[in-house]
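Retry 2 of 3 after timeout on previous attempt. Resubmitting structure tokens to design endpoint.
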């Protein structure tokens, strides 16, 4: 049976959390994770608890939560006095934003499909400066016709 070390270097912590050491330092600098204990030679030392927190933070960021939402969720994840409804509210707000972005991406996808189809039909094979894709990109309203 393998025993996990109690003290982790910043490199080991970053590797196990799936991020770069610069990101760990940044999260520490902005107070998202607590300041590391330092050795006599000034090396940062982290614990398994720090790894769990950092992994949680990474997952929040993977889900697209903002740094401030991530900070709130991290605080709520250890609170015995705050309400679950506070967590749900943050998740609901973020879900609405994700749905809005998906709708925007669907519009962009449709517009790009149109640009590509028009290029294939009209100008593909000619000089790049004459490509109809440029016309489509230059229009402010994707629904606007030429």
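Retry 2 succeeded. Sequence:
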């Amino acid at each position: 049976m393998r025993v996990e070390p109690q003290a982790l270097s910043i490199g080991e912590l970053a590797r196990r959390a799936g991020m770069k050491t610069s990101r760990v330092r940044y999260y520490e600098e902005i107070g998202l994770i607590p300041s590391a204990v330092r050795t006599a030679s000034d090396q940062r030392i982290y614990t398994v608890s720090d790894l769990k927190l950092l992994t949680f933070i990474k997952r929040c960021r993977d889900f697209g939560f903002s740094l401030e939402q991530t900070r709130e969720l991290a605080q709520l994840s250890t609170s015995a006095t705050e309400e679950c409804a506070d967590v749900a509210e943050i998740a609901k707000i973020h879900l609405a934003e994700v749905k809005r972005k998906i709708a925007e991406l669907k519009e962009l996808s449709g517009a790009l499909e149109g640009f590509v189809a028009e290029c294939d039909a009209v100008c593909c094979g000619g000089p790049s400066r004459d490509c109809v894709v440029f016309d489509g990109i230059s229009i402010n309203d994707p629904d606007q016709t030429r």
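Attempt log closed. The beta strands are 37-38, 44-45.
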